[in-house]
Write a structure and sequence with these properties.
It contains eight helices and seven strands; from the N terminus they run E-H-E-H-E-H-E-H-E-H-E-H-H-H-E. Bound molecules: nicotinamide-adenine-dinucleotide.
């Protein structure tokens, strides 16, 4: 892992924060990316206190100029990018008839467009060096969910983006894979109403939510240099919920 540079979007809380902390602990140099400087610096301090390496770079990854600046700064700081984890995401669950155009656009911009923008910048660098690992965080919700048409569409788009980029980069030494979590205990999950959670619990075979570390462990697998023959895949981390497909949101 030594000297490998990992850029993790939306890593100022939840799953992204856990990936940043675990990656730093196994020797990656971590770039924590988010919009909140205070939260980002807190995570970097936690990592550095253990003698590990991380920096915080502020960026709204749904904006192309901010993505370009982000990767430019990473290049200036570390000279390369080895791993990109696209993880930034939001939810705005609403029945379609109540969904405003802005609710659709915001979710698609952050959850899908930012993945395209960051992949584009990262692949420019990875292609040159003939090496890269891209891991996109989708969701089990891409299979479909009530009042989640914007979220499900964005997460399904991530699956298609991953599969297409896996083919496009297959001869460049780059792998592109996708993790599709189910209910994971994070600030985003805690936004759901009790009613929504109990509805989803009804179709949760294990009857409990997962921890961020369950997702991190799979991201770590896809990021590993040794795992070069796995690309274009979607791996569910959802306690078996995907087996029941799209019964509920
Ligand atoms: N928690 C779950 O149950 C669950 C389930 C399936 C998928 N996911 C996905 O996992 C990912 C992480 O979510 P989480 O549960 O840790 O939630 P979270 O809210 O804790 O983390 C999301 C992070 O993305 C950041 N972010 C949002 N918009 C951004 C932007 N424009 N630019 C930069 N950063 C931005 C937020 O600030 C936050 O740090 C998301 O893509 C989410 O859709 C989560």
């Amino acid at each position: 892992m030594e000297n490998k540079i990992a850029v993790i979007t939306g890593s100022t809380s939840g799953i992204g924060e856990d990936i940043a902390i675990k990656f730093a602990s196994i020797g990656y140099k971590v770039v924590v990316v988010g919009r909140n400087k205070e939260k980002g610096n807190r995570i970097v301090d936690t990592i550095k206190e253990k003698g590990e390496e991380a920096i915080f770079l502020k960026a709204d990854v749904s904006q192309s100029d901010e993505c370009e600046n982000l990767f430019k700064t990473v290049l200036e700081t570390y000279g390369t990018v080895d791993i990109l984890v696209n993880n930034a995401g939001i939810m705005r669950n609403l029945p379609i008839v109540d969904m405003k155009e802005t609710d659709w656009d915001k979710v698609l911009d952050i959850n899908l467009k930012s993945y395209f923008l960051c992949c584009r910048e990262a692949i420019k660098i990875m292609k040159e060096k003939g090496y890269g690992r891209i891991i996109n965080i989708s969701s089990r919700g891409w299979l479909g969910g009530t009042a989640q048409s914007n979220y499900a569409a964005s997460k399904g788009g991530i699956v298609s983006l991953t599969r297409s980029l896996a083919l496009e980069t297959a001869r460049m030494g780059i792998t592109v894979n996708c993790v599709a979590p189910g209910m994971i205990d994070t600030p985003l999950h805690r936004q759901s109403t009790e009613e929504e959670v109990s509805f989803r619990m009804d179709s949760q075979p294990m009857g409990k939510v997962g921890t961020p570390r369950q997702v991190t462990n799979i991201v770590e697998y896809f990021a590993d240099e040794e795992n070069w023959f796995t690309t274009g895949q979607v791996l569910y981390v959802c306690g078996g919920m995907s087996v029941l497909a799209s019964l509920s949101s």
